[in-house]
């Protein structure tokens, strides 16, 4: 009974503090629906450790109202159209799968001093792929791939997929095979195995799937959780290929 009254008292205190400090509306919901945990989170973030609360608060706000982050970033760009502000806005659009808006903002940056920025070029590769601008992906990815310092995994991957979409299968296979590195690149290697099967290279597909299954046995528990969905698809593919799975 004492715990109940203490919880009520803590809620009232948090509500009062939130009202006095004009806290965001979502805090009231957190305090109300999560009486103990919500209050402790509020006390820690808004009272004890206010410095970090802004960052976490922004994440919660984004989850509740996804459009707010875009709106805030647009306002930042309007106030100061810097490379970092414009890039953040483009990244936010890409994250929300608003590819046209993302591309428009990335391309604005091509007129500036940072037009050769590696990260910008990589994001353009990804965006153009999702917009099915496969020729543009190839044009952008080739110089990135040629520079050994910029052999980004995602660049090679989307380059290979773009070649595949254009029915340039030999080029597609060459790039996708470049990602076949033991104990890494699991989702990409799954795509490669599927591609090989589509190309009727059954033995190669079986070999790759067998390697993936074998590697799975030696993965750490955290990695098994991270790649759970990938290996469920690997197991399904192994069943299709009639491989034994231990």
UniProtKB/TrEMBL annotation:
Q: Which residues form a coiled coil?
A: 89-116
The stretch of residues making up the signal peptide is none
Q: Does this UniProt record's set of keywords contain Transmembrane?
A: yes
**Transmembrane regions:** 25-45
Task: List the InterPro entries.
Answer: TPR-like_helical_dom_sf, UCP030959_TPR_rpt-cont
Keyword annotations for this protein? Coiled coil, Membrane, Transmembrane, Transmembrane helix
What SUPFAM superfamilies does the record point to?
A: TPR-like (SSF48452)
- The protein depicted here goes by the name Tetratricopeptide repeat protein
What organism, scientifically named, is this protein from?
Nonlabens dokdonensis
Q: What is the lineage of its organism?
A: Bacteria, Pseudomonadati, Bacteroidota, Flavobacteriia, Flavobacteriales
């Amino acid at each position: 009974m004492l715990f109940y009254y203490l919880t009520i008292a803590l809620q009232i205190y948090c509500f009062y503090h939130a009202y006095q400090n004009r806290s965001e509306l979502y805090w009231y919901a957190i305090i109300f629906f999560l009486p103990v945990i919500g209050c402790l989170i509020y006390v820690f973030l808004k009272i004890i450790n206010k410095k970090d609360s802004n960052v976490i608060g922004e994440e919660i706000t984004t989850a509740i109202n996804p459009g707010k982050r875009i709106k805030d970033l647009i306002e930042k760009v309007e106030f100061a159209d810097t490379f970092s502000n414009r890039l953040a806005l483009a990244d936010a659009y890409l994250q929300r799968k608003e590819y046209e808006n993302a591309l428009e903002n990335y391309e604005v940056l091509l007129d500036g001093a940072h037009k050769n920025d590696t990260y910008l070029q990589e994001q353009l590769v990804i965006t153009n792929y999702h917009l099915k601008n496969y020729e543009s992906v190839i044009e952008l990815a080739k110089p990135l791939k040629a520079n050994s310092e910029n052999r980004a995994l995602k660049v090679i991957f989307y380059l290979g997929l773009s070649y595949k979409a254009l029915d340039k299968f030999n080029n597609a296979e060459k790039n996708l095979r470049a990602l076949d590195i033991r104990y890494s690149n699991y989702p990409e290697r799954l795509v490669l195995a599927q591609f090989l099967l589509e190309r009727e290279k059954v033995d190669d597909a079986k070999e790759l799937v067998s390697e993936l299954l074998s590697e799975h046995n030696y993965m750490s528990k955290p990695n098994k959780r991270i790649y759970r969905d990938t290996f469920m698809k690997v197991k399904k593919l192994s069943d299709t290929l009639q491989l034994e799975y231990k």
